[in-house]
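User: Good morning. I'm curious how 4H4 would be positioned relative to this chain. Could you predict the structure with it bound?
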Amino acid sequence: MRVDVVSLFPEFVAQCAAFGVVGRAQERGLLSLHGWNPRDYAPGNYRRVDDRPFGGGPGMVMLIDPLHDAIEAARAADPREAKVVYLTPQGARLTQAKVRELAAHPRLILLCGRYEGVDERLIEAEVDEELSIGDYVLSGGELAAAVVVDAVARLQEGALNDAESAAQDSFEHGLLDCPHYTRPVEHPLGHVPEVLLSGNHAEIARWRRMESLGRTWLRRPDLLDEQALGKADRALLDAFRARYLQ
Ligand SMILES: Nc1nonc1C(=O)N[C@H]1C[C@@H]1c1ccc(S(N)(=O)=O)cc1
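Assistant: Good morning! Here's the predicted structure, ligand included:
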């Protein structure tokens, strides 16, 4: 998968992607990351990339042409068609389902805004999808781009080894993950649930599923469609609730 990042600070995203699973995915050739700086396409000595907003008001707006030329240069760098994503608080919320969809594309071009954002005409002409990583305003879209790069990189075939692939379960079925424990069994902070030490894989799987369902019910009921639960999951959730409410 190729990801091109259009940003005034492309090295920012490259640095975020240089470590751990994402860095390893790059070393394995599973992901290639390329930066394009609109300032390199801004004319004149000042190489302007922003200007004051029409209609007045605070802040600055990123100019069309430097962004357009940077995006077109990125498109031309690889023959495969690219999906252009603009990171903005006004975008659709990024979810694991959306990440899975993005990860299936051969190419993404991530457009990072600064200042008050980007001239709407550029968005209308060049952007396929606007995405937000949350309801807050960052100083730049680069952190959001780094989030997208990280999330899609770990879904590339071969990016995670077996021990890490379990982490994908957390949203495979749209539920929160179960709690995790490791050595020591006994610690001043508490003990490990007995079922996890039992070696009974069926019971362990049942416990983990019940914890995932229960945690989702407690912490993110918006993620839980109880009507869509099967009979077994409904029984597990009832058991969790009975224990929690006793
Ligand atoms: N949250 C986010 N999820 O992804 N990007 C996020 C973000 O905050 N980006 C900000 C730097 C850029 C930006 C873009 C657009 C607007 S505006 N005027 O359209 O509201 C404001 C700020």
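The longest strand covers residues 83-93. The radius of gyration is 22 Å.
Let me know if you'd like a different ligand tried.
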